[in-house]
Specification:
Helix 4 packs across helix 5, helix 7 packs across helix 8 and helix 8 packs parallel to helix 9. The relative contact order is 0.14. This protein is α+β, with helices and mostly antiparallel strands. It has two domains: about 220 residues, no CATH class; about 100 residues, no CATH class. Strand 15 and strand 16 form a beta hairpin. The protein is built from 13 helices and 16 strands. Helix content is about 35%, strand content about 30%. The chain is globular and about 85 Å long.
């Protein structure tokens, strides 16, 4: 499994120079509002947004944009790598980043601590083609290695790491907050769903992903249904699909004023949700039910090595939240997961080793540390005793056991 070990974020919003180590499985960020928890998660998303770049631009033009630096230490293919990304971007009207350029470099600390490899346009583009089942793989590797004067081994590992970065997945508390935004139907031939997840259409993407899983991965779909139906948390009874083929006819004029009819067919699916014998559609669900269905689906089925989840407790009943947290803990054995939370109930389900305490001051901005580094030896010992004899982690947090928290 590929895992981030240490993160350094420079010059990104409140993260002036934020450095911290993370758990190899589950890391939970806690802290007061405005401390910078969301900024940490959003900074990691900048690495994914490098994929927005159509072509790298000259360095001088890059200087016209905001610049942030993300420095990662990660275990990859049983070796340790250091990757540094200088990312140039502008903040758009939605208060998110449009990335225009990036300078990336990496080195293999396990084999060669002093050799940095610059990741240029050719290496970046090669990552799009190096799929295991792509017959051009060997040809692309040889060609890129020759053009960039890199070894084939370097080309392969760079492509893998770029894919790791751009597959980072993020799910916010606000993503699925309004079920009425769900589409009435999904056209399976609509190309907008087929390449990359788009945070601007999360409701449509969820329904599409759910449908395609039912078609292409029936075992995974059955596992999901058994998790959310009466065999699991009892959120729904079943989710099925009605299929329709429709035609959309048009016409065009050929030379000689001949009119030719063009027939186009659409594959339409409509999701049907059964709850207590009542047939409902996604846009008719309560916000808590819909958000929980979506969150559980991606916790179980997202194939990324790094999954970011912001405030999973929002709109989720405590009884269901317990199941969500248990699923997160289970899946963190197979992928690295970062969670931010304001919920003491969430902390009740975790261990001190999973907690990253996030704070901010006026001069240094956001800083983050594990509890072992945030607390003195005596305070950490007192925490262990408290958890053993008196209460749980959430209660300790709520009672002010983490200083200004």
């Amino acid at each position: 499994m590929n895992r981030i070990k240490k993160i350094s974020i420079s010059n990104y919003r409140s993260c002036v120079k934020t450095q911290f180590e993370v758990s190899e499985n589950l890391t939970t960020l806690i802290g007061v509002n405005g401390s910078g928890k969301s900024n940490i998660l959003n900074a990691l998303q900048l690495l994914k947004k490098i994929n927005q770049i159509s072509s790298f631009i000259p360095y001088a033009k890059s200087q016209q944009h905001n610049r942030s630096t993300i420095d990662l230490l990660l275990d990859f293919d049983n070796e340790t790598y250091n990757i540094i990304a200088d990312i140039y971007y502008e903040i758009n009207e939605e208060n998110t980043e449009d990335v225009f350029n990036a300078n990336l470099k990496l080195k293999n600390i396990t084999k060669n601590k002093n050799k940095w490899i610059e990741i240029d346009q050719a290496l970046f583009n090669a990552a799009s083609y190096l799929e295991e089942d792509n017959i051009r793989t060997e040809y692309v590797i040889r060609t890129v290695a020759s053009l960039t004067k890199k070894t084939k081994e370097d080309v392969i590992i760079i492509a893998k790491i770029i894919k790791f970065l751009r597959s980072i997945s993020y799910y916010s508390a606000t993503f699925f907050s309004d079920p009425t935004m769900c589409p009435n139907l999904i056209d399976l031939k609509d190309p907008k769903f087929k390449r990359f997840k788009n945070e601007n259409i999360p409701h449509e993407q969820f329904i599409y992903d759910l449908c395609m899983t039912s078609i292409n991965y029936p075992k995974s779909y059955k596992n999901y249904i058994n998790t959310v139906n009466q065999n699991g948390i009892g959120l729904v009874d079943d989710i099925t699909w009605e299929n329709y083929k429709t035609s959309n006819n048009s016409a065009k004029v050929k030379p000689g004023s001949k009119i030719v009819e063009i027939k186009r067919f659409r594959d339409i699916v409509i999701p049907i949700i059964n709850i207590d014998g009542i047939i409902l559609y996604p846009w008719q669900l309560s916000e808590g039910t819909f958000k929980t269905l979506a969150l559980i689906f991606y916790i179980l089925n997202d194939e990324s090595d790094l999954l970011l989840i912001e405030e999973p407790e929002v709109c989720v009943h405590h009884g269901l939240l317990n199941s969500v947290i248990e699923l997160i803990k289970l899946q963190s054995k197979y992928k690295q997961i970062f969670v931010s939370t304001h919920s003491d109930y969430v902390l009740d389900k975790l261990k001190p080793e999973n907690i990253l305490l996030v704070k901010k001051n006026k001069e240094k901005g956001t800083f983050a540390n594990s509890l072992t580094k945030s607390l003195s030896k005596n305070d950490f010992k007192a925490l262990k005793e408290y958890l053993k004899e008196e209460g749980n982690l959430g209660e300790y947090w709520k009672e002010g056991g983490f200083g200004d928290e």
